[in-house]
Amino acid sequence: MAVMLEIIKESKRTKARLGRLHTPHGTVDTPAFMPVGTQATVKAMTPEELKEIGAQIILSNTYHLFLRPGHELVAEAGGLHKFMHWDRPILTDSGGFQVFSLGDLRKITEEGVQFRSHLDGSSLFLGPEQAMEIQMALGSDIAMAFDECTPYPSSYEYAKSSMERTTRWAERCLKSQTRQDQAVFGIVQGGMYRDLREQSARDLSSLNFPGYAVGGLSVGEPKHMMYEVLDYTVPLLPAGKPRYLMGVGSPDCLIEGVMRGIDMFDCVLPTRIARNGTVMTSRGKLVIRNAEHARDMGPLDPQCDCYACRNYSRAYIRHLVKADEILGLRLTTIHNLYFLLQLMAEIRTAIEQDSLPEFRQEFFARYGYEP
Amino acid sequence: MAVMLEIIKESKRTKARLGRLHTPHGTVDTPAFMPVGTQATVKAMTPEELKEIGAQIILSNTYHLFLRPGHELVAEAGGLHKFMHWDRPILTDSGGFQVFSLGDLRKITEEGVQFRSHLDGSSLFLGPEQAMEIQMALGSDIAMAFDECTPYPSSYEYAKSSMERTTRWAERCLKSQTRQDQAVFGIVQGGMYRDLREQSARDLSSLNFPGYAVGGLSVGEPKHMMYEVLDYTVPLLPAGKPRYLMGVGSPDCLIEGVMRGIDMFDCVLPTRIARNGTVMTSRGKLVIRNAEHARDMGPLDPQCDCYACRNYSRAYIRHLVKADEILGLRLTTIHNLYFLLQLMAEIRTAIEQDSLPEFRQEFFARYGYEP
């Protein structure tokens, strides 16, 4: 099997697990956060910088690479790892999320999705077989099955038929993926309906994927609803296999997800808000553009020892951000990713020490969340 | 004296000199190219990256820092070196070039220049005393006298009165600058008129500056005209002091300038064209966006061992540039600055070996210049 989760410790007081995810490009300590490199680059970062802040795995996007530069070109370059100079594990999404987001520009059939490129309007098709073909060409360690991320809210009928189609597509993905050095993860859907989620989890589990994602969450629903879905869905997934909560990356959701048995996360949040000038600190979020930081010669976060916090003041970073200087968003990006990767390391330590509930309480109080 | 040029070797066959410029923040091998960090950052680069590619001194802009974040704030931060985390020498320009470029937004008097900020339209004043006050607050190793960069073309009368005013301003700059750890360089003007250039060089030399710049060149005149001005101006400058040719950074002009006795250069060219996707290589310029590079798995320049060329293909960098990814312009910026800094190192070696004319010929043939 291309990808295997070694479980090192299971929390007695929560559903959290400490593990090591073995992949063809190395091992990832779990629970893990995956920085997003949409277009074969984690925005503003080099691979060396990603390693320096402790990233062990990144995510890249099938839809974007399919459109530009094209998966054949990436294959010619020797695969995505070589193309982008990243020798650690890569997970690729299936492109489903992006093509479904195109609204009027796409048409769904049992076969797949006909859509228009957001770059040049050309007519393209993506279905389970195509998504697998592209991901095999990219050569990611983990490929995701082609699914529909059910919108929120959705009627019971729509959520059901969409989920059932996603399951049929998952089967086709498994059949068409032939690389021995790549694992395909199935994606649980079903909207916010318990019986649909349970059916999806059971049906996909019977297909014996090497890993499972919970999709269709963090799509606009209240957080308590996401946690409820996790509460009843995760226990139905095979215990020995990795579980990935898609598109989730705010600190509170990472902690809550881990406590419900999630091993992997990804999100554009830390890098996107960084480019906007918002940074995460041990005391909550901070908008560096604000005038209060103009003469502040202290670091973004006194508790942080990332490159930005070791060497630059808030006053300087604010100046860079206001002057639209690239170094400004490089520093905020480094800081935010480091913050989340450090948080994951602290979460792993807390699981090791079986003190995750206390860690959660302390973190929430410090960060300013309602626990 | 804050800044001193130690001349190690003088070329017998040209006017080139090999030297070491001693400053309060360390020593610079000359002839030297200074990357430009307009807003207290060399665009897209960290100080560590600048050091890695061999930058020993950078230039920053008084006008921009005066407007944002303000020199008082930089002084509060402990000076420009500390503010921007760069512990090697810094040269600041005087702001004259920028305020004179404002056209209708400025009014010149003997006192100085009244102008409107390009950021918020506020009315501001910059004269010799203000330019010195700002540069003292910034704490650069080398401050430039406040001058008018005479436009090209200019009438003899305008060039003469402008040059004479620049000389009077130079005297006021010397008088008002009081920091012992900062050197002020005078700037020779006089347009393209030989007697005016000679008068300017003589008058400024009599003021005994620790260094001299030749300004008002590379402003639209044909290159042979610039070389002629250097031919008759440079020999009138004190032999033992550093000579700086302002705003010049194309490879041919660097070589021609060094052969005429110039020790220092600065230019936004390498970083600006990099952000546009144009790179300099041992075989001339290359526009990375061009379709011919789409499937080229070789480096930007096979002769280059910069970080970009060691680790990335033209195909990948082209993809990044076309996708507007920050890493794209980071890589082209690193490459172009490395190219020019390496060129300066090769020029220094050629002076050492007294083979600069042969180096020039070989370089021009390879790069595709008419020698």
3D structure, described in words:
The structure is a homodimer of 371-residue chains. Helix content of chain A is 41%, strand content 18%. The first copy, chain A, is an alpha/beta fold. The first copy, chain A, has an eight-stranded parallel sheet with strand order 4-14-13-12-11-10-6-5. In chain A, strand 15 (278-281) and strand 16 (284-287) form a beta hairpin. In chain A, helix 10 (251-259) packs parallel to helix 14 (326-352), helix 11 (269-275) runs antiparallel to helix 14 (326-352) and helix 13 crosses helix 14 (326-352). In chain A, 54% of the residues are buried. The model of chain A has no long low-confidence stretch (mean pLDDT 97). The interface between A and B is medium-sized, with 34 and 34 residues.
Please give the alpha-carbon distance between the first and last residues of chain A: 39 Å
Would you identify the regions of chain A where 5 or more consecutive residues have pLDDT less than 50? none
The tally of helices of chain A reads: 15
Strand order of the largest sheet of chain A: 4-14-13-12-11-10-6-5
Proportion in helices of chain A: 40-55%
Q: From the structure provided, what is the oligomeric state, counting identical versus distinct chains? A: homodimer
Biggest β-sheet strands, sense, barrel of chain A? 8 strands, parallel
